[in-house]
Design brief:
Layout lengths: L1 E6 L3 E3 L9 E8 L10 E6 L5 E5 L5 E7 L2 E8 L6 E8 L4 E7 L9 E3 L6 E2 L4 E6 H4 L9 H5 L5 E2 L6 E2 L8 E4 L2 E2 L13 E9 L12 E6 L7 E10 L7 H5 L8 E14 L3 E3 L2 E6 L1
Parallel strand pairs: 3-9, 8-10, 15-18
Antiparallel strand pairs: 1-22, 2-21, 3-6, 4-5, 4-7, 7-8, 9-11, 12-17, 13-14, 15-16, 17-18, 19-20, 20-21, 20-22
């Protein structure tokens, strides 16, 4: 048996990802009396790509950034007469909705307020969701390097056919998207595992903009390149010479069956035109 799964090219524009699979950051900038600070400069930096988005707080001190690709970010706030505040190591997954309330204190007391510890903010998403990113799944002993195997790690999902089911409903009740595009369940295994950035699973109480069906809402976001070139290669090998016979076969005097498993793949990524265009090809092949 031979199965070939490949993503021959993935050229992702930072602003072209499906809007429903991106993240949102909102919040407010306040002073020591919890009053909103109007006119503060708020910047959000994508650590991997170096892209920076900027906005100015409203009269009530509020700000918002939407359509954010999954990844690591740094948030910075500044205003004349106040010390600068910087929040680093913000990790966003697909469909994340995070809120940050930042307090500015008056100058001249140096240094600036810098929060270097990883933080996730406060989630204001009413949905119960599970974000399965690469840091979570890359080294897990999955039975196969396929997205359906990864989905079984989310609470409330049970194995059933090509994809798990949720809430006791048939797998056909699930709604699956890859980079915002509706994708049939049978094609989900065709996405190379190394091409996946994050899989967001909402098994219940999905928000109106996501809950198109009664089953699980599965949003797959593929990886894009960063400002530096990176690559990887993997190989999984199994054959009958490395596997013991099972107890039932031994009890009946039966020899070990045939076992040949070779799973090979590679991925690479980097910039085409900083900071807007990136390349991330990935290929995977399974021989059995």
């Amino acid at each position: 048996m031979f199965l070939f799964r490949t993503v021959p090219w993935l050229i992702l524009l930072s602003a072209a990802l499906g809007a429903q699979d991106t993240a949102t950051i909102v919040g407010a900038v306040v002073d020591s009396r919890d009053s909103g600070v109007a006119g503060a400069e708020v910047s959000l930096r994508d650590v991997g790509r170096g892209a920076v988005r900027q906005t100015t707080t409203s009269a009530g001190g509020r700000y918002a950034f939407d359509a954010l690709p999954p990844g690591d970010y740094e948030l910075e706030v500044s205003k004349d007469g106040f010390k600068k505040v910087k929040v680093g190591s913000i990790r966003l997954l697909g469909r994340d909705r995070r809120s940050f309330v930042l307090e500015l204190s008056a100058k001249p007391a140096p240094p600036d307020n810098v929060l270097e510890e990883p933080t996730s903010g406060i989630s204001f998403d009413p949905a119960s969701s599970t974000g399965l990113d690469r840091a979570f799944s890359e080294f897990l002993p999955l039975m196969s390097r396929r997205i359906p195997s990864l989905l079984l790690l989310a609470p409330g999902l049970l194995p059933s056919g090509p994809v798990p089911n949720a809430n006791g409903l048939a797998p056909g009740a699930n709604y699956i998207t890859v980079d915002g595009a509706n994708t049939p369940a049978a094609e989900l295994s065709g996405v190379a595992f190394d091409a996946v950035q994050v899989v967001d699973v909402q098994a219940s109480a999905a928000a109106p903009e996501f809950g198109r069906t009664a089953g699980a809402q599965v949003a797959v976001t593929t990886r894009s390149g960063a400002n530096e070139f990176h690559g990887s290669f993997f190989g999984h090998f199994r054959n009958r010479g490395w596997a013991a016979n099972d107890w039932l076969a031994n009890s009946q005097g039966l020899a070990r069956g045939e076992l040949r498993h070779r799973n090979l793949g590679a991925a690479a990524g980097g910039p085409l035109l900083k900071p807007r265009r990136y390349l991330r090809p990935a290929s995977e092949a399974l021989h059995g």
